[in-house]
């Protein structure tokens, strides 16, 4: 059955298409600008003003210089360690906390939940955190990045809500068969809540990938720096051929300041853009399941 739309409905639909297309353009344009600028000829790019809707000329010289810098590979390696290790630790610890708080018979459940929620609004501050990391002997080690942010309070609360929505009869039947809490969590609860877990993995992974402030505070050895910290040094520096990227040669000096920043942004962003489509199908479902209390 074909429903004929009135003139007003056609106007409304066309307005929505135009409006949503405009919003989409506003969201995509910053990334498109960086992409086009990264492959544009630097001399022409400097002279250009206004919107950049296509590359001005074409050159991959900036990418050759960036990929020729050993700091980029070192940063990638460290970032992958922090992302994989940090996300694994975060999911494990958050799952334990969420499972305990989702149990109706957990002693001191409400006071514990209140203490956890308070950490969302109040923190000890930078200096106490630094002194704590120093006192624990974690300063200038990878553990200074992996351990302090192991649990995100909001993420754990979302997981707790999702776990609590799972029928309690599943836990009871497993315990009747002799399963302990770890078996119930890892073999029953987590497989059922895989949509929420996928979203939390995405959140923790993106957070660890973009993190740079903790590394700037706790790490003095550049061999341990993540990619984003090198990117920050390049973006805020007057020249990309300064102290951070010592390996850039003199041939590249003519376009380093113009192109390198854009090329580095693209290289550091591509992995997240490549992984996100595979997690997108879980995104809405996981958020809704974990944010609504039944």
Residue share in helix: 55-70%
- The number of domains: 2
Beginning-to-end CA distance, first to last residue: 38 Å
Shape: globular
> What is the oligomer described by this structure?
single chain
User: What's the average pLDDT?
Assistant: 81
The CATH first-level class of the largest domain comes to Mainly Alpha
Radius of gyration: 24 Å
| Strand percent estimate | under 5%
Query: Could you give a short account of the major beta sheet?
Result: none
What do we call the CATH homologous superfamily of the largest domain? Answer: MetI-like
Order of helices and strands: HHHHHHHHHHHHHH
| Total helical segments | 14
What is the β-strand count? 0
Poorly predicted ranges: 238-252, 290-294
CATH fold group of the largest domain: MetI-like fold
What report would you give on this structure?
By secondary structure, this protein is mainly α. It has two domains: about 1-60, no CATH class; about 65-290, MetI-like fold (Orthogonal Bundle). About 70% of the residues lie in helices and about 0% in strands. It has helices at about 5-40, 40-45, 60-65, 70-100, 110-120, 125-135, 145, 155-165, 170-175, 180-190, 195-210, 215-220, 225-235, 255-290. The longest helix is centred in the C-terminal third of the chain and has 36 residues, at about 255-290. The two termini are about 40 Å apart. The model is unreliable at about 240-250 and about 290-294 (pLDDT under 50).
